[in-house]
Specification:
Blueprint: E1 18-23, E2 28-34, H1 37-47, E3 57-63, E4 75-80, E5 86-90, E6 97-105, E7 111-116, E8 120-121, E9 152-154
Antiparallel strand pairs: 1-2, 2-5, 3-4, 3-6, 5-9, 6-7, 6-8
Protein name: DUF4912 domain-containing protein
Length: 185
């Protein structure tokens, strides 16, 4: 028996189910997603309510090394699905395996997964590489030991006055006798 991919059932080839994680640094991850219109409609019809009222959620799992890619997990963090199709996230630990699920919360508050991402490995932090091993002492040994994992959405600053080339201030922000060289309107 062969399975038919979800995108094969859609009228649009770019309307597919996707949840993917990309490592940016040891503590930062970029996530992007797309829930096919077919699956979103199916979920809304099943629960009889609008998509946003279903509390769309991203859930992140830290997978133990021996269980990377399996269903065994050590730590779980979640956040409401940010608006748009992607976001940057921070709060990951170095040298750990992570994967994510996009889902909704039902009336009882239970998480119902709809999509699962790839499993990533965050890079290791090597803070002691420049110190020869025969010179290691408690004074020069640096160890990173966070107390808890807390994944957060990284928000960017919005610039009201932005062109394709730079951030600028409008003429009205300067005194009337200021001369400008070039077009800044």
């Amino acid at each position: 028996m062969s399975l038919i991919p979800t995108q094969a059932l859609s009228a649009h080839p770019n309307d597919r189910d996707t949840l993917h994680l990309l490592v940016q640094s040891w503590a930062h991850v970029f996530a992007y997603w797309q829930l096919s219109s077919r699956k979103m409609k199916m979920v809304q019809d099943h629960f009889g309510t609008d998509w946003l009222l279903l509390q769309p959620t991203l859930r992140f799992y830290e997978a133990p090394e021996q269980a990377a890619g399996s269903h065994g997990t050590a730590n779980v963090s979640e956040l409401p699905l940010p608006p748009g199709p992607c976001c940057f996230l921070s709060g990951f630990l170095s040298g750990r395996h992570y994967f994510a699920e996009l889902g909704i919360k039902n009336d009882q508050g239970h998480f119902l997964p709809l999509l699962r991402s790839n499993t990533i490995l965050t890079p290791h932090i090597h803070t002691n590489q420049e110190i020869p091993s025969n010179e290691l002492t408690p004074n020069n040994l640096v160890t990173y030991r966070p107390t808890a994992v807390s994944i957060e959405l990284v928000t960017s600053k919005t610039y009201e006055h932005f062109s394709a080339y730079s951030v600028y201030l409008p003429k009205s922000a300067f005194p009337a006798n200021t001369e400008f060289g070039g077009d800044i309107d």
